[in-house]
Amino acid sequence: MALLNFKPRATAAAAQLPRASGQLEALLDGFSIEVMPRTAEKVEDFRALLPAGTRVYIAHIDGTPIEDMVTTAARLARDGFAVMPHFPARIIRDKAMLADWIARYQGEAGVDQALLLAGGVADPKGDFHCSMQLMETGLFDKAGFKRLHVAGHPEGSRDIDPDGGNKMVMEALRWKQAFAQRTDAKMAIATQFCFEAAPVIAWANRLAAEGIDLPIHIGVAGPAKLQTMIKFAITCGVGPSLRVLQRRARDVTKLVLPFEPIDFLSDLAAHKAAHPDFTIARVHFFPLGGIKTTCDWTRAHGGASGQPAAIAAA
């Protein structure tokens, strides 16, 4: 089996691991990763990069044919991964299209979990404009989906709250918490990527204080060139924690080095170790610097995934 012979490439950040190596390894346990059909095509064998059972999200970018999404899902499922495709509400025309997508994913790839989100387009192309409307159709429950994840925004979202506040974001999360309580769906919040632990910790604690205790799968940008990281951060609307990258950019000695999430994850790991009830349960990687680069980094830093029991619990 390829994994038995896989030896992760060492990275410069490995030297920092004694800071919280055991804690970091625990936080990385059961991590997930996101791919797109066009990036997945470039990977010869995911089994050589990821442990069996790893949850792999498939991002559905506007304009990607559903056939490409389903083909990617089927390939990953055959290779032993837990597949979680995106269902972006604003690019789904109507309930019939949603039902068709669900049937295709189930029939060809055995999919039984999904990430529901509004999507990256400003204007809806049909009847849906938010993930809550997708959930209200009842189609996922009828199809026997076991897990539904929803989007989270630790630093807010001007797409949802144009004034820069968080009123609408919080109302949506309260609705989703209530949905989880009145249904059998296993749910979690999968977040946008961030770069600084303090705002994330404050956000997670605020949710818990307001009774929103859905497990949080915190978004993390995989290692990438600093210029690449800044470009994606601005495009995706990353807020206050962007200052971490801005400080790094001012240090000319570090401009040529890849930016790695070691500080961010170590700080979160230390906080979780000190506060076992902390609701961040998993790490979800956005491989901004490439899938292989991110997979190598997780393995080099003690990351494990593919534990079905652990994944099912959170």
TrEMBL record:
Domain of life: Bacteria
Stored InterPro entries: FAD-linked_oxidoreductase-like (IPR029041)
Gene3D superfamilies, per database record: 3.20.20.220
Keyword Oxidoreductase: yes
Keyword terms of this UniProt record: Oxidoreductase
Name used for this protein in its record: Methylenetetrahydrofolate reductase
